[in-house]
C-alpha cells in the first residue's frame, strides 16, 4: 500500500513537469552539439536550416518547466503548512466548545491544549505492561564486600516488560529511555541496568554501554537511551531488568510517560521486617489481580500495611501520561527481624 502511494507521488503532476523540463534540456544539449540518434543530420529538417530555433525552444521550455516545478513545490508546501495551522487552531476551538457543551465547563485554553498534547497527540502507546518490584535485604557479608554502610540500605530490583504500538499513520523514530535513580555516588556499581531486550534484540553489554553513552547521566540518575524505528501499527516488545539502592525506610515512585493499557503490577517483598503499601497516582485505585490457578484474588492494596510475600495488582483504568504509582516501605513495628534468605540476596550482586 505504501509502495503504491509512493509511486503515485512520484508520478504526480509537479514531478512529471520537472521530468519534461529535464528531458527538454537534455535534448537541447544534444542538438546543440550536433548529435542525432542515427549519427547524421537530415538537411531537409528545420533543425538543419535554422538549428538555433529548436535548440533555444527546447532549452527555454526546459528551464520554464523546472522553474514551474520549484515554484509549485514551494507553494504546495506553504499551503500545506498553513492548512495544518488552521486545522490545529480549529481543533482547539472545537475541543473547547465540545467540553463546554458536554460538561458545561469553560476550561482555559492552556489546560485544553495540555490535554490534547499529552494524551490525544500520543503516537506511541503501551498496549500491555508488567512491572515487578522485588525488595531485598542486603546480607552483612555483602555489605562488607562492597563497602555498604551496615543496615542502611536495601536492594530494589525492577523488572518491566511492555509492548509499544505505533498508532499513527507514519513511521516514528521513537526514543526508548530508562532513568535509574542514584542514592549514593560511591555505590554506583550496584545501581543500573542489568539486562533487557528491545524487539528481538537482546541487550548485550555493548548495547547497554551504547545506551548509557547516548544520553548523559545527572548527579541523581543513570540514564539510558536507544532509538528504534516503529512502523505504523507495528508493536515492539521492550523488557528491562535493573537494580536500585534504597534506604531502609523509603519509597519508589514509578511513572509512565506513555498511555498504558493492561498494566499488571507485582510486589515481591523478601524482607521479614517491613510493612509496605502501594499507592495509586492515577484515576481510581489499584485492585488485587485475579489468580486463576487458585481462583482467588490477591490482597487488597488499600488494606492495612502488608508484610512479606508476593502480590499482584492491576489499576481500575488505563494509565495516562505522567500517571503511575508509589511503592513505600518502612521497618515493621513490633515484628522481630527474621532470617535473611541469603542465597537469593547474593544473586543481586553477582
What does this structure look like?
This protein has 350 residues and is of the alpha+beta class. 34% of the residues lie in helices and 33% in strands. The protein contains 8 helices and 15 strands. The protein has helices at 2-10, 13-32, 46-49, 51-103, 109-120, 140-146, 205-213, 342-346; strands at residues 124-136, 153-166, 172-181, 192-198, 201-202, 221-230, 235-247, 250-256, 263-269, 274-281, 286-288, 290-291, 296-297, 309-315, 323-331. Strands 5-4-7-2-1-9-14-11 form an 8-stranded mixed β-sheet, with no helix packed on it. A 3-stranded antiparallel β-sheet has the order 8-15-10, with no helix packed on it. A two-stranded antiparallel ribbon has the order 3-6. A hairpin with a 2-residue loop joins β4 (192-198) and β5.
Amino acid at each position: 500500500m505504501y509502495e503504491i502511494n509512493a509511486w503515485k507521488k512520484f508520478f504526480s503532476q509537479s514531478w512529471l513537469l520537472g521530468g519534461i523540463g529535464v528531458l527538454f534540456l537534455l535534448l537541447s544539449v544534444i542538438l546543440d552539439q550536433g548529435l542525432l540518434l542515427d549519427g547524421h543530420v537530415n538537411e531537409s529538417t528545420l533543425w538543419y536550416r535554422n538549428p538555433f530555433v529548436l535548440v533555444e525552444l527546447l532549452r527555454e521550455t526546459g528551464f520554464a518547466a523546472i522553474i514551474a516545478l520549484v515554484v509549485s513545490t514551494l507553494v504546495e508546501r506553504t499551503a500545506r503548512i498553513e492548512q495544518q495551522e488552521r486545522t490545529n487552531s480549529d481543533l482547539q476551538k472545537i475541543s473547547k466548545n465540545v467540553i463546554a457543551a458536554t460538561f458545561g465547563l469553560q476550561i482555559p485554553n492552556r489546560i485544553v491544549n495540555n490535554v490534547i498534547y499529552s494524551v490525544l497527540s500520543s503516537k506511541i502507546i503501551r498496549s500491555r505492561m508488567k512491572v515487578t518490584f522485588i525488595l531485598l535485604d542486603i546480607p552483612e557479608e555483602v555489605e562488607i564486600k562492597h563497602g555498604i554502610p551496615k543496615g542502611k540500605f536495601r536492594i530494589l530490583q525492577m523488572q518491566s516488560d511492555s509492548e509499544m504500538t505505533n498508532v499513527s499513520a507514519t513511521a516514528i523514530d521513537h526514543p526508548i529511555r530508562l532513568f535509574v535513580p542514584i542514592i549514593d555516588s560511591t555505590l554506583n556499581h550496584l545501581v543500573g541496568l542489568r539486562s533487557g531486550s528491545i524487539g528481538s534484540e537482546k541487550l548485550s553489554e555493548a548495547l547497554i554501554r551504547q545506551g548509557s553513552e547516548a544520553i548523559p547521566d545527572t548527579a541523581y540518575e543513570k540514564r539510558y537511551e536507544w532509538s528504534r524505528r516503529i512502523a505504523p501499527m507495528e508493536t515492539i516488545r521492550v523488557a528491562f531488568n535493573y537494580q536500585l539502592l534504597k534506604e531502609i525506610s523509603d519509597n519508589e515512585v514509578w511513572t509512565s510517560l506513555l498511555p498504558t493499557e493492561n498494566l499488571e503490577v507485582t510486589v515481591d517483598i523478601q524482607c521479614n521486617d517491613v510493612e509496605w503499601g502501594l499507592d495509586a497516582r492515577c484515576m481510581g485505585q489499584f485492585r488485587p489481580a485475579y489468580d486463576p490457578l487458585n481462583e482467588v484474588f490477591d490482597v487488597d492494596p488499600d488494606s492495612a500495611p502488608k508484610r512479606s510475600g508476593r502480590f499482584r495488582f492491576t489499576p481500575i483504568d488505563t494509565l495516562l501520561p505522567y500517571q503511575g504509582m508509589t511503592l513505600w516501605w518502612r521497618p515493621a513495628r513490633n515484628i522481630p527481624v527474621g532470617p535473611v534468605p541469603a542465597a537469593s540476596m547474593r544473586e543481586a550482586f553477582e
